[in-house]
User: Fold this.
Amino acid sequence: MERFKAWIRAVRAVNPLITDGGMAMAVLLLSLPSTGDDLRINIDYREPDTLGYLLLAAQCLPVAIRRLRPELALPISGIGIGVYSALGYQVTVSWLGVLICLYSIAAHASRPIALNGLAWTMVGMAFSLIGSPAPLTLEELFGNYVIFITAWVLGDRVRTGRAYTAELEGRTALLERQQEDGARRAVMLERNRIARELHDIIAHSVSVMVVQAGAARRVAATDPGRTRTSLEAIESTGREALAEMRRLLGILRSPEEDEVALAPVPGIAGLEALVDNARSTGLQVEIEIQGEIRPLPPGVDLSAYRIVQEALTNALKHGGPSSACVRMIYGSSTLEIEVTDDGRGAVPSLSQAAIAGHGLLGMRERAAAFGGALKAGPRRGGGFEVKASLPLDATP
Assistant:
């Protein structure tokens, strides 16, 4: 049965005329056998003829366009059954065609058109039932009205439910677009921030190169050893500046950012101060260093600091009363950063973080800018963890 329903929905999606046309033919075929038999004794019905069969078809076949043109299907079917009854033909189950068309106009047309269709149907039913050769009791008249009004109400509820669902889908789509826009804005803002910081690093490196070049020029004739040392420093600093420049060119800049305050660029050297600041807010933080501590490329140094800073900020915002551990692992070619806490771990989702602030997006952007990776999520047993891997010699 489920497969049959799925097949019907698939066929209807291709063309509603196929399924509705089949329904119209089914109602017509059900109506034909009863046209030659009296349903009541001693009632002088008109003998079925060509006109009678045509009027019978007029009652049933409009069901085929009940979805495409409900405002046309109901009048045709209603007029068909009205004329059919007025001419004294035997009433058959062809009234199902009118019933289906009345339901359809309530389900697929606008409310004013549906109400107008209901009103005319009620008037037409009165004339058809009163003018029929068969005697009609008040209970039968009332029962017919209840059946047709119920069909209209059901159709109206379907239309209302469909409109409500469409409105919810529209709002959901709008919210998703707003979240995507917010995520893109957060990414651009964070990239802009990274670009400005890398710009400061490059400016510092160029300044060092200028100073070293001036020193080398002054002592070139008198102190070759010092000149060679200055040139080596210029070469090393230039390589670092070139790498940072390549990274900088890959990051989009936004003209809508506020000016950045002139402050020293932070790095891992300021990790203790960062942790002390977190401790002063009530978060118990421990630091573990593994491997041989050594100088980091300026961009990697800055990004490592920012990742730890953001992870501790998340622990303070979303972890509740908790403790955290910052683990720095110096490898041969990578710097591994792990920040864990044992709080609630109620960090918002990526889309929510995009709207509320940089959050996880900012950390991921910083890691990706240097060819690294970042993972974040709840820990087993509670809490939250952030793990980042930053290559120390990655090609930008």
